[in-house]
Amino acid sequence: MSATPSPVVHVVFNASYFDGRSARAHPVRIWLADGQLHVQGDGIALSLPQHTVDWPERTRHGMRVAHFAQGGMVQSENSAAWDAWAKDCGLNESLVVKMQQNWRWVAASVALLVSLMLAVQQWGLPLAAQALVALTPPAVEAALGETSLSAVDRVIMKPSVLPLDKQTQIRTAFAQTVAHQAPSSVRPWQLVFRKSGIGPNALALPGGTIIMTDEMVNLVDGDTAVLSAVLAHELGHVQQRHGLRMLVQATVLGTLSAVVLGDFSSVLAMLPVMLGQAHYSRQAEQEADAHAVKLLKAASLSPALMVTLFDKLQARRAADTSQGKPASNDQASWLGIAFSSHPQDAERIAYFRAEAL
Ligand SMILES: [Zn+2]
Q1: Residue 97 pLDDT > 60, yes or no?
Q2: What's the CA-to-centroid distance between 211 and ligand 1, angstroms?
Q3: Is 1 contained in some domain?
Q4: Is it the case that residue 60 has pLDDT exceeding 80?
Q5: What is the count of structural domains for the chain?
Q6: Is residue 334 very low, low, confident or very high in pLDDT (cuts 50, 70, 90)?
Q7: What's the CATH code of the domain at 28?
């Protein structure tokens, strides 16, 4: 009698795999077994511990994307089929449970919460936020940055379709611009590219990650000097830890109410919305602009590059409006780089013009 292996049935799902380095989609079969997510396709055979996978939320419609801690992701546009598969596999955990399994998130959340409550009680809201930013250890800021990036990715971003050599060219040009500063005076930064649902934009997340959208690159025809100016502005936000400050300020009330109500998921759900819609204060923008001017001048680049950027943004808005599309800034504010109100744009353009003289 021949020994037959005991039948083990794994529910297999057809998805697309991205390796995190190229924009190419690979068709793969995925299934869960023994606490691992298995990904198999042509030349692809991965097994990842299930708890290291950033599973998509189930409550929203649209694309399902599961990010891997080591880089890369699998996704499916068929959200109903994905959800059915996830349910069959027992991936029923709530977002809160999922987040609680991530110790960094727990550490960051607890640290933030306790500090928030003490600080708000002692100093009131605006001062509390400022004090908290100063108190926040880099590791906590980095964890918040990672969470922000995956939240933004789930809601308003898709993988970049820019050629990798173009991405490298932009990154290198900006690194050369920054190289004129004393290395010890520059906070760590990293540049990632995404195709966006919010048009031409760049944003600085807590922890130093700067997102530049493909649409921003296309808006200026890939001009690395103009893009370096944009990034110099974003690095200003990184230097001043504006991302963290905004996160703290905007979530402070929500977080406190969550503590009272005991419902953390509402705060987590709010995060991407906030990052997509909030914008920095006028003072924060002025600080970032001043930083950009300093960086550009040190690298013998003209602050007028920012004027070029504003011209192109305004031309694009005008074109959108004349085509009957709502102005992009009505759908989502120009978080990273431009204000939604035009008079302030004018003020900033005048500033860069004057600095260019
Ligand atoms: Zn800005």
Answers
A1: no
A2: 12
A3: no
A4: no
A5: 2
A6: very low
A7: 2.30.29
Instruction: Answer for the pair 148, 205: CB distance below 8 angstroms, yes or no.
Output: yes
Contact between residue 177 and residue 148 where contact means Cβ atoms under 8 Å apart? no
- The domain of 206 spans 104-356
Average pLDDT, the chain: 80
Q: Which of 66, 89, 112 is the last residue of a domain?
A: 89
* 154 Cα–ligand 1 center, Å: 22
- Compute, in angstroms, the gap from residue 335 CA to the centroid of ligand 1: 7
Same domain, 171 and 221: yes
- Ligand 1 center from residue 336 Cα (angstroms): 4
Residue 283 buriedness (CB in 10 A; 0-12 / 13-18 / 19+): exposed
Question: For residue range 175-228, what is the model confidence (pLDDT) as tens digits?
Answer: 999 999 999 999 999 999 999 877 888 888 889 999 999 999 999 999 999 999
* CB of 75 closer than 8 Å to CB of 125: no
Q: 186 CA distance to ligand 1 centroid (A)? A: 17
Cα of 91 vs centre of ligand 1, distance in Å, is 39
125-135 and 103-123 are packed helices; what angle lies between their axes, rounded to 10 degrees?
A: 140
Q: Using 50, 70 and 90 to split pLDDT, how confident is the model at 292?
A: very high
Give residue 161 CA to ligand 1 midpoint distance, Å: 24
Structural domain ending residue among the three candidates 54, 89, 124? 89
Whether residues 48 and 162 fall in one domain: no
Q: Whole-model pTM above 0.70?
A: no
8 Å CB contact between 25 and 48 = no
Answer whether residue 6 is part of any domain.
no
The Å distance, Cα 147 to ligand 1 centre, comes to 20
CA 234–ligand 1 middle distance (angstroms): 6
Whether 7 is in a domain gets the answer no
Q: How does pLDDT run across 131-169, given as a tens digit for each residue?
A: 778 888 888 888 888 888 888 888 788 999 999 999 999
C-alpha closest to that of 11 among 72, 73, 82: 82
Q: Can you tell me the distance from the alpha carbon of 211 to that of 183, in angstroms, rounded to the nearest whole number?
A: 22
